Amino acid sequence: MIQLDNVSKSFGSGKTVVSNVSFTVNEGEIMVLLGTSGSGKTTTLRMINRLTDPSSGSIYVNGTSVTTQQPETLRRGIGYVLQNNGLFPHYTVAENIAIVPELSNWDKKRITDRTAVLMEKLHLAADEYLHVYPHQLSGGQQQRVGLARALAADPPVLLMDEPFGALDPVTRASIRKEFRNLDELRSKTVIIVTHDVQEAFELGTYICLMDKGIVQQVGTPAELLFSPANDFVHAFFEEQRLLLELKALKLTTIRQWLNNTTHENATLNGNNSCWEALEQTTEHDIVTVQFEDKISTINTNALMDAVKQYKHGLL
Ligand SMILES: Nc1ncnc2c1ncn2[C@@H]1O[C@H](COP(=O)(O)OP(=O)(O)OP(=O)(O)O)[C@@H](O)[C@H]1O
C-alpha cells in the first residue's frame, strides 16, 4: 500500500511544483498519474522512492514513513521502471535481471529459476536472449527486460515512469496488454506515470489527474469521464471522449440494456470493457457475453445502443 498525505515539493528557486497531493493506492491496484507536461507527475513518483524528498507532507509505503528508512533499504522493496529502461549496457540480460536478487543474497538456483519464469511471462525466449547485451535487443525487448528486472525480487511496490513511452504505438499497445495481464500484479501496489490518456484508461484502477502540481481529481476512469470534478477534467478528455467512454465502461454497467438468450460458449464477461466488446463485434459480427445473472448476444448496434441508453440515464 502507498499513501500520500498532503505532499508538497518546492525546489531551490522556491517554485512549488507539487502542491498538497494526497491519495492512497492499495495492493492489487494501479494508480495512474496523468497530466500535462510539467504537472509534477515524475516529481511525485520520485518522492516515493526518495530520489527526492518532499518539502512537506508524509509518504507511507506499507504503513511505514519513507523518510524513516534508508533509501537503499526502501528501494529494495520497490521495483522501478523507466522510459529508457535503465539497463546496464555491459551486463547481459540475465545479469541485469539478477541485480536485486544478487544484492539480496539469493542463491544461484533461485535466481536462475526466477529469471526463467519472468522471461517466459514476458515473452522473451531464454535460449535466445539470456546471454545477450541490451544493445542487441529491440526497444520492446529491452523494455520487457527492464520490467523483468523490476519484478525480479518480487517487490510489493512497482513505480513506473512512462514505461512504454519510448516504444512505437503497435509495440506499446501489445506490451501494455501483456503487462495488464501479468498475474504478478495482483499482489502489488503499482503507480504509473504517463501523459497518454488511453494508457491511463487501459491500465488504471484509479487515475490521479494533475495540472500545475495540483491534483484536479482522483477517481476511477469512469468517474473522471462521467462525473468530472471541474472544467479542466472535463476538457482534458474531450478530444477522445467516445473512445475513452468505451474503454472505461464495463459491459456489466450496461447489461440491463442487453438481451437475454440461452446461447452458450460466451467469449466475454461483464468485466470486459465495451471497447473490448466492440473490437470483437467488429471482427465476428455477433459475440456472446456471460453475466452473473444472464447471457447476452450482442452486435455492434446493440452495444452502441446500450451505451447510448446508459449515457442518457446519466443526463
Ligand atoms: N531538480 C529540479 N530542480 C528544479 N525544478 C525541477 C526539478 N525537477 C523538476 N523540476 C520542475 O518541476 C516541474 C514538474 O516536473 P515533473 O518532471 O515532475 O513534471 P511531469 O509532470 O513529470 O512532466 P513530464 O510529463 O514532462 O515529464 C517542472 O516545472 C520541472 O521543471
UniProtKB/TrEMBL annotation:
Name of this chain's protein: ATP-binding cassette domain-containing protein
ABC transporter domain span: 2-237
Keywords: ATP-binding, Nucleotide-binding, Transport
SMART domains for this protein: AAA
Similarity annotation: Belongs to the ABC transporter superfamily.
Example of a GO MF term: ATP binding
PROSITE patterns for this protein: ABC_TRANSPORTER_1, ABC_TRANSPORTER_2
Lineage: superkingdom: Bacteria
Entries under SUPFAM superfamilies matching the protein: P-loop containing nucleoside triphosphate hydrolases (SSF52540)
A biological process term (GO) from this entry: quaternary ammonium group transport
Pfam family, one: ABC_tran
